[in-house]
Amino acid sequence: MLDRQQLETFATVLECQHFRKAAALLNISPGAVSQRIKSLEAAVGAVLLMRDPTVIPTRAGEAILRYIMAMRLLEDETLELIKPGKFPPVNIAIAVNADSFATSFEPVSWKLGMQHIGLDIIVDDQDHTVTALARGDVKGCISTQREPPIGFQADFAGGMRYRCVATPGFIVTHLPTGMTLPAILDVPAILFDRNDAIHDKFLSTEHQT
Fold it and tell me: pTM for this structure?
């Protein structure tokens, strides 16, 4: 059985992204943190952390992190079953895309809150939330990817339809001849962030039609 103290130290280093910060949080020396990580790596026979330049898990480290998160969740659920309401809420980290977070996610978060479950929400692009899941940063995500990482299950949550809308003045200025591909390519565009691929997908669809 893996040492719980070493596992929690490993998780804390990743959460803090720094050995010294993890040491301060755990109230131990940085050398003790390093020793616990080395002992855990020796126990599993694999390197678990890299510095590139921040602290990131290796593939083996990602597997260990998922194990730690599952262990924490199981412990929280067990304590809640034994003495409901006597322990802090179960905390679950999930990755959600911005559009879902702003529209349909509120009823879900409210329902989970009623079940004494706290949420640590990471907002990211829907094409990239699954990366956080595979890395072990979160326990679940809303994603466009059909195939889940190994050890997870994917369920269809529904679809989100996007409509093109504009003011009459914008249409007169930028689309006087209609929604043709050449006209669209000259229209000013605002992307949510550098990971947002919806704009490119829309242009690809228009090109095909």
Answer: 0.57
